[in-house]
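User: My advisor, Dr. K., asked me to get a structural model of this assembly before our group meeting. I'm new to this, so sorry if the format is off. These are the inputs:
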Amino acid sequence: MTVIELAGIERVFHLGDSEVHALTRLDVDINAGDYVAIMGPSGSGKSTLLNLLGLLDRPDAGSYRLEGRDVTTLSPDEQAAVRSRRIGFVFQSFHLVPRLTAAENIALPMMLAGIPVVERTQRVVQALKDFGLDQRADHRPDQLSGGQRQRVAIARATIMQPAVLLADEPTGNLDRATGDDVINLLEGLNQRGMTLIIVTHDPKIGLRARRQLMMEDGLLKSDSARPSAVVAST
Amino acid sequence: MRNADILRFARDATTAYPLRTSLSVLAMAIGVAAVVVLTALGDGARRYVIEQFSSLGSNLVIVLPGRSATGGFSPANAITTTPRDLTVDDAAALSRLPLVRRGRAAGRRHVRDQCQWPAARNTGRRHGLDLPRNSQLQDGARAFLPEADWNRGSPVAVIGAKIQEEIFAGRPAVGELIRLGDRRLRIVGVLKSTGQGLGMNTDEVVFVPVAIAQGMFNSNTLFRVLIEAKSRDQIEQVKRDAAAVLKERHGGEEDITVITQDAVLATFDRLLRALTAAVAGIAAISLAVAGILVMNVMLVAVTQRTGEIGLLKALGARGSTIRNAFMAEAAMLSLVGALTGYGLGLFGAFVLRQAYPVFPAYPPNWAVVAALVTSLSTGLLFGIMPARRAAQLDPVQALMKH
Ligand SMILES: Nc1ncnc2c1ncn2[C@@H]1O[C@H](COP(=O)(O)OP(=O)(O)O)[C@@H](O)[C@H]1O
Ligand SMILES: [Mg+2]
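Assistant: The format is fine. Below is the predicted structure of the whole assembly, which you can bring to the meeting.
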């Protein structure tokens, strides 16, 4: 089953008079439960693609179907609802709210979704246990190590049980050993059925994925799932 | 997002930046406190004046020498040279009016020169029976000045508490003789101390029969005559009758002014209410300034927390949720500021009342409500712009600013 279908996606940024084609003629399908690495040099359009997949940005042309539903035509509030329930984000710089504790940060998506406090508390307790953060529930981000922060961020991204987990350079701010822990954690989630899409420019991490998409200048340079087709089109 | 969660989230956000929060709360508090204290002053002044004026008596008609300027131009005025004085005989004629219950005539002079105590005044009074309102005699003495023929007053006096203190140093004064100018007067009563008021202070006054006063000052003119109608309905009739009687006695000239106590009260009331409203309006400007400060603080908050706003959007927050969260924050700043200011204002009014016990400095309800409503609505109004700005932030751009 395909969870993501992109067809003819274009994304153009206007910088003064010049146009930057961040994404050009992009056709990608991603299966539910897949583990995909998006790779490529800096400025090749990886983050732009991830933002489109996460409905933080809209394409200038093309269609995007998420779980069979065209999401590019949704209203902003409907898109917010999709982000809330079907998509999880993990960022390079963690993006934890500094004044909130680990537990409160993890509960944030549930609070925004209007889930009752009792259920929130139960699920946060479970998540803290699952991610080895039981002892850190009441710590604020500045009292946590980088690895712990990213684990809080991953717990937050998955607390709503999304269909797709999007991670933009999740190990970019971590040392190698901690980075590996985080990747293992993400892979564990993928093994339990969550579709995982990681942006990285680290080939070692990229090669661990089941499928690699190579980007260059906004074009899909190669796709490990369809070696011949993509190269032919460029 | 649930309302309780929005409020908690906003509260945590405000307490996370204590300096900024307390400054805008302080600004709002000063604005509200200014309105409360200044209107308490204004309304206190109004009540004080009304109270003092009402203490003269009820159903009063006031007769003053001289033509009121509000009568408009009339040929009679142009011909008249100087208005005739109001005399004791005029007062006696007024007292014979059928609808008049009683009255008092007053001549008043400062007698600093003639007397050895400061700023003492004398007041002659007709009938001599009533105490000044709000005054009481010491030592259980019953009578004020004795009723006697107006033109032959007996040589007696009632003195204020301070004068007794200064002359007799606490010894009983009733029955003693004092010298006032070239007269020797027997003291028949001492007034209880009433404390410092803003108007006439009876502690420093000597009351003598009107005839004695007129003899002393070699003048038979009266400062004013107060007459009291038998009932409220008869005030207007008494006013007309008084004017008619005096016109007749003054050879057909309308050279006196007759006003009712109610009219004077109403005028003072209007005047001082307008003053209070004007003062409230001026103080309200500080509320607008405080509102702008809240806006400033919220704009800084939006800029400082741009990354957080991007994150909230990525986590599924709607634009309206973010707008509400920031509006709640602005509302909290204004609300806490307004309540703090209300407390400060009440305390300020309390301090005023402690310092000037005769001055009823209570803020009027309308001013308190207006101050609270204005501060809340300016806070919200000026909160709208920053909140909308937050809600409209592009999530990708916002997330990059971290
Ligand atoms: N908001 C923007 N405005 C203008 N240009 C942008 C914007 N976002 C990205 N770009 C440009 O689009 C291209 C792709 O950017 P990005 O997707 O961030 O690359 P990557 O994540 O692969 O490093 C770059 O050339 C970048 O400069
Ligand atoms: Mg990038």
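One thing worth pointing out at the meeting: Residues 2-223 of chain A form a domain with the Rossmann fold fold (CATH 3.40.50.300).

User: Perfect, thanks a lot.
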